[in-house]
Design brief:
Radius of gyration of chain B: 14 Å
Distance between the termini of chain B: 29 Å
Shape of chain C: globular
Radius of gyration of chain C: 16 Å
Largest sheet of chain B: 4 strands, antiparallel
Oligomer: heterotrimer
Strand order of the largest sheet of chain B: 3-4-5-6
Shape of chain B: globular
Largest interface: A-C, 63 and 60 residues
Helix content of chain C: under 10%
Distance between the termini of chain C: 37 Å
Strand order of the largest sheet of chain C: 1-2-8-11-10-9
Order of helices and strands of chain C: EEEEEEEEHEEEH
Number of strands of chain C: 11
Strand content of chain B: 35-45%
Strand content of chain C: 35-45%
Largest sheet of chain C: 6 strands, antiparallel
Number of strands of chain B: 6
Helix content of chain B: 10-25%
Chains: A alpha+beta, B mainly beta, C mainly beta
């Protein structure tokens, strides 16, 4: 192949040469060349090797869908070489070859080809199982495609949401006409085209085509159509949610965005995807030098590339004839044109590393280096079938068409049928006008019920609302059925599946197109069936004796083309919730703990010292993530009595009570304290991880089952910074910063006050005790949270105050036997099992889970939560270790486990079977790595200060 | 799938959370175990017209009763749960 | 001892780019009023008094925003509750002709003039965060207030700053 004289429609700029590297050597092309066209002009014929047999492969379609030209560009794998434009300094390498493209050791596969039948993956490399790691290592070397780079791409991947009135998929003549007509009707239009430029087949056509192309492009520039080139519609979902993978122009105003997923809610979708030319299945059809007629026309007219010297053409339609004309025009010798309509055929194509000769059906053998086929067209129906259309086979046209489209999707142009250029454009125009009309109807629906939405500005598009748009009929032209030749050839070039493979699959019992596809992997490669689906169906039909209509198609699924994970992911953000004091924690050596969306301090370097400080002096912990809810209304006690197992009616102003929340199956859902701040004002707390679920749960009752309750619930979790001051000197410390009387007589255990702390008004202070020490929890309006935290640390320097983190708190509460819902309880733990029966007031008329809790009392079969101490006090069994009996029977598990600094020995909470709950019982803990521990059941959950003397100080 | 939220207008179903089929809560004082467990665990899972409770969790945070065809995935109506007639 | 100063959850500076500006408006006073007949319908905004923006915030909720503490409206029907959420919400203001384009990177809603005109608000997800997006043009310039749970304030700022990289925001 060589470069020709300038061609009328060429897209290369001969004034701008581009130097790049291919397979280690320097090459030169022109701006506008694709990698493949530049290499073809330089005489390159072999671009890669096939997947299984590693046969040499050359250009087949020379466009976006060419399966033989996948290359690695500057480290980016699986680039479509016949689509990507050459760039200065690009380093392009072939894929799937070792050690080199010319001499590929893996081509030895051809010698064992008869053993590499379909489904050989399922049959070979199975035994012996112990060799699987070795098989994996070997097969890994033979795996298809390029290598994913190990360093992240420097450019970004991003997303964008758009709301076009009409989205047109396909920028050929019909697509452009539809877009222009819709824009002319006053609606917003987005046009998506997979090639680098608009125009479709007009680009490589004759003078009339080029003239029409100029007019249509001018219409695009004039109107308000947003055009995305080098972009593909990857899927259509419910309600015309359409995904578009954008490459060119993804960068936006300033940034470098390599690829962008544009997510469109289109009011109407027009699919103008055109037609894709089918290869012919005949022996030798994958040799370099065998091309489709459209490939020849593209190479000659767009890139001024001479595809060969001596050509044989097999033609069944006008494209074949046009390709022959183009070849003759540029001086290629067209040795023979076989008229497929008259029954002439190619029997076999001969050659080793490229085409050398053709055996014709009349027995003659013609020497040549280029074989051109024009045996038929496939309509790419996937987007239409994704929208609910059905693919129906038209034997007269040798093509599948789509029927039964929903109201918000239509098809235009070659995808629907054939005609003259004028007819295709007129069809596109009519579909575009109709699309605009239907889009406006959808606009009204989308605006309905949206507060303040202006809806459709009716005056702007008067003619479009009413009336009917006549879309002219467009029928597929008659075409002979030419799928399988006299000898077996390749059906799926990407997956290296031949007609023989499909026949063998059917013989083995995979006799439907869905089964044969999965067994052979035909249509499962990067082309996703565009070039090979119909030939696959024909091969299966031939093998089963059915016809194509009965065989049918496989179900198309998005994405339409492979999509990079980067494009799908877009920008990734770790969305953290932060307390106002988090900056202080970060600056003072806190090791972070990620709990749900919150970032919290796990410890500040020494959790044991933190525990000691709380037991001996005073510590501060930031518990801002604690779920907090402001409850107002006369019906709050009724709501609380419904949600919690406890009683709430007699809770007086200034009192705080601990509550247990169960679900309707009696399982413990959440726990926390609620304080009454005023006659109709309560502050409810929940666990931090359960706060959102508790909110949804409360609102569900209030909005559905108990609409009679007038309660206003406002989440205030982040509204307050919450600081727990814990330890024997906590009262002493806090008293320095508030005028509230904190003495034991004035401020008893489980009481609440509001007042001023560290000069901040409206703080809520209550006396509770998760850690088991005297403690006060201060809820500060969040903007002042850091101020109060620092004020406490400053004021308490002389009493030994230090901050403590979540880990220290876990140890402290475990020493006191306080359970954590979700840690010491699970999805089956009903209230009595967790030892929370004392809170259940069964005589209440109704509360969530009441019936199940009543029935739980009648049973004996559930696990109980107990305190446990390993006999060997230095051993700390891992949480979730199983408790076993007689070596094998599981009778419980460890739910919480730590070394206790206060006692100097390990302490646990565990769920155990009812017959093991008696104090003093010895149980066996099975450790995860093997081995076991003995442990003793304690009389109560608390290991330290079981009477709770310190709490009530 | 688009759900026409009664307060916000049509929104992507991803903004919502499916909560439950609309089921009747038995009288807790008198319900027997079989009746209560049917309320907890058994669902019709009908193919065709269904009535469901959804939560517009990323929007107005209202509970919404949705009429949907589970075969065609078309939503025919959506009403605020708090405004439903008491059954 | 000097009076303590309330600190915003957002620690990033005000930034501007090509046609877009991002500032922290978290210091606004925010008062949530719930009553049987709210004075502003859901999804719409109003200006009941000088310097006060009232948001139709929830089914029966109105959120009042003001530079200085706003006076809740006279109760129309009992029961009514008033909760101060000044410290519970972070607020960022995104202004400029490119603001809707920037938002289109992270928000799936149709922000066109027809669908989200001046005087409307939308409770919606923005880059995965549940926000209240308020169209509140200032002196004819396109502007949005974005409200989010206070604890997510810094995360929201980070998301908008990142989305603004394309527009030179920084």
């Amino acid at each position: 192949m060589t470069r020709l004289q300038p061609q009328p429609g060429e897209v290369i700029d001969r004034d701008r040469p581009v130097r790049f590297r291919w397979d280690g050597r320097d090459h030169q092309g022109y701006a506008g060349d694709t990698i493949a066209s530049a290499l073809a002009a330089a005489g390159v014929r072999v671009f890669g090797r096939s997947m299984k047999y590693h046969r040499p492969r050359g250009l087949l379609s020379a466009d976006f869908h060419d399966p033989n030209c996948m290359v690695t560009v500057d480290g980016e794998p699986n680039v479509r070489g016949a689509h990507r434009l050459v760039g200065k300094g690009m380093d392009v390498r072939p894929q799937d070859t070792w050690p080199s493209l010319r001499f590929d050791v893996k081509a030895a596969n051809q010698l064992v080809g008869r053993f590499l039948g379909p489904g050989f993956y399922y049959k070979t490399f199975m035994r012996p199982a112990r060799l699987w790691p070795a098989y994996e290592a070997v097969l890994g070397r033979f795996s298809h495609g390029g290598h994913a780079p190990s360093a992240p791409a420097p450019e970004r991947y991003d997303h964008r949401y758009v709301h076009p009135d009409v989205l047109v998929a396909g920028g050929g003549p019909a697509g452009m006409a539809a877009a222009a007509a819709a824009a002319g009707a006053g609606v917003s239009v987005l046009l998506v085209e997979e090639e680098q430029e608009l125009g479709g087949h007009l680009r490589w056509g004759g003078p009339d085509d080029l003239a029409a192309l100029r007019d249509l492009r001018a219409a695009m520039a004039a109107g308000s159509v947003e055009v995305l080139t080098d972009s593909v519609v990857t899927g259509r979902y419910d309600g015309n949610w359409v995904s578009v993978l954008q490459r060119a122009g993804a960068g936006g105003a300033t940034g470098t965005v390599r690829e962008r997923m544009v997510k469109a809610r289109a009011k109407h979708l027009v699919v103008a995807a055109g037609l894709i030319e089918r290869p012919y299945v005949v022996g030798g059809n994958d040799l370099p030098g065998v091309m489709l007629s459209t490939a020849v026309r593209r190479l000659v007219n767009l890139y001024a590339v001479r595809p060969g010297d001596r050509a044989v053409v097999l033609s069944a339609n006008a494209s074949g004839a046009a390709a022959a004309d183009d070849l003759r025009r540029v001086g290629v010798e067209v040795v023979r044109v076989l008229d497929a309509r008259a029954g002439e055929d190619i029997t076999r194509i001969r050659g080793r590393s490229g085409v050398q000769a053709v055996e014709c059906s009349d027995g003659t053998v013609v020497e040549c280096d280029l074989v051109v086929t024009a045996v038929g067209w496939t309509a790419p129906l996937t987007l239409l079938t994704l929208a609910g259309g059905r693919a129906t086979y038209r034997a007269d046209a040798a093509r599948f068409v789509a029927t039964g489209l929903p109201d918000d999707v239509s098809a235009a142009g070659g995808l629907v049928g054939d005609g003259t250029l004028e007819q295709l454009i007129e069809h596109g125009r009519a579909v575009g006008r109709d699309a605009a009309r239907r889009a406006m109807r959808v606009a009204s629906v989308l605006a309905a019920g949206v507060p303040g939405a202006a809806g459709v500005p009716g005056a702007a598009v008067p003619a479009v609302h009413d009336g009917h748009v006549d879309v002219p009929a467009l029928q597929p032209a008659p075409h002979p059925e030419l799928f399988l030749g006299a000898t077996d050839g390749i059906v799926d070039y990407s997956e290296d599946v031949s007609a023989k493979d499909l026949r063998a699959a059917v013989r083995e019992g995979y006799d439907s197109i869905e089964l044969a596809k999965r067994y052979t992997t035909a249509t499962m490669g990067p082309t996703q069936g565009k070039l090979e689906a119909v030939n696959s169906i024909a091969a299966v039909a031939a093998a089963t004796g059915a016809d194509l209509a009965a065989t049918g198609t496989t179900t198309g699924r998005p994405p339409y083309v492979p999509v990079s994970l980067g494009a799908l992911a877009g920008r990734s953000h770790r969305l953290l919730r932060r307390s106002p004091v988090q900056g202080w924690h970060d600056a003072h050596g806190a090791v972070p703990l990620y709990a749900g969306a919150w970032i919290r301090p796990d410890h500040y370097g020494d959790s044991v010292a933190e525990v000691r400080a709380v037991r001996e002096a005073v510590g501060l912990i930031d518990v801002t993530p604690l779920g907090k809810f402001d409850l107002r209304g006369a019906d709050v006690p009724s709501l609380l009595e419904l949600l919690y197992v406890n009683r709430w009616r007699k809770l007086d102003v200034g009192s705080v009570r601990y509550g247990v929340m169960c679900a309707e199956d009696g399982v413990v859902l959440d726990d926390g304290v609620t304080g009454r701040l005023g006659p109709e004002h309560y502050l409810m707390t929940t666990t931090s991880s359960g706060a959102d679920a508790a909110h949804d749960w409360m609102e569900r009752w209030l909005q559905t089952q108990r609409r009679d309750l007038q309660v206003h619930v406002t989440p205030v979790t982040a509204n307050y910074a919450s600081i727990n001051v814990a330890g024997p000197r906590s009262r002493e410390l806090l008293a320095r910063l508030t005028s509230l009387d904190l003495s034991a007589s004035a401020f008893g255990y489980m009481r609440v006050r509001t007042g001023r702390v560290a000069d901040v008004e409206d703080c809520v202070v209550w006396r509770i005790g998760f850690t088991g020490e005297l403690s006060f929890e201060v809820h500060v309006p969040a903007g002042y949270g850091l101020h109060v935290w620092e004020a406490l640390l400053d004021a308490g320097a002389d009493v030994g105050v230090r901050p403590f983190g979540v880990e220290a708190q876990r140890i402290l509460r475990l020493e006191k036997g306080h359970l954590i819902v979700g840690q010491d309880t699970d999805g089956l733990t009903q209230a009595y099992a967790a030892g929370l029966g004392w809170a259940v007031k069964a005589d209440k008329p109704d509360f969530a889970g009441k019936p199940e809790l009543a029935w739980q009392l009648m049973r004996e079969d559930y696990l109980h939560l107990v305190g446990l101490q390993p006999v060997d006090g230095t051993a700390v069994p891992p949480e979730a270790s199983q408790i076993v009996e007689d070596g094998t029977r599981i009778v419980g598990r460890i739910t919480s486990s730590r070394m206790s600094p206060t006692l100097g020995r390990s302490v646990c909470l565990a769920m155990v079977a009812p017959h093991l709950t008696a104090a003093g019982t010895t149980v066996t803990i099975r450790l995860p790595g093997g081995g076991s521990l003995q442990a003793r059941v304690m009389p109560q959950h608390a290991h330290v200060d079981p009477e709770g003397v310190k709490l009530r100080a | 799938m688009l759900i026409p939220c009664p307060l916000c207008g049509p929104r992507d179903a991803l903004e919502f959370r499916f909560v439950d089929e609309t089921v009747l809560r038995p009288e807790p004082q008198s319900a027997g175990p079989e009746q209560w467990r049917s309320y907890l665990y058994l669902r019709a899972n009908r193919a065709g017209a269904v009535t469901e409770l959804w939560l517009h969790r990323s929007g107005c945070r209202q509970y919404v009763v949705v009429e949907r065809d589970s075969l065609t995935n078309t939503v025919t109506a959506a009403r605020l749960a708090r405004k439903e007639a008491v059954s | 001892m000097p009076s303590p100063v309330a600190v915003s959850a957002v620690s990033g500076p005000a930034v501007s780019g090509q046609g877009v500006r991002l500032t922290d408006a978290s210091g606004l006073h925010k008062v949530l009023v719930r009553q049987v007949s709210p004075t502003v319908a859901f999804g719409l905004t109003a200006r009941p008094a000088e310097g006060v923006l009232a948001l139709g915030y929830g089914y029966d909720e109105v959120l009042l925003l003001a530079e200085s503490a706003p006076e809740p409206p006279a109760p129309a029907g009992a029961p009514r509750s008033v909760v101060d959420l000044t410290h519970g919400l972070s607020a960022l203001r995104l202004s400029g002709s490119a603001a809707p384009e920037l938002l289109s990177r992270v928000c799936a809603l149709d922000l066109s003039e027809a669908m989200t005109p001046e005087g409307t608000l939308r409770c919606c997800p923005l880059a995965g965060l549940a926000v209240v997006l308020v169209r509140d043009d200032v002196e004819g310039e396109r502007s949005y207030l974005v409200l989010v749970d206070r604890s997510y304030g810094q995360s929201l700022y980070d998301v908008l700053l990142d989305a603004g990289a394309e527009f030179g925001l920084g």
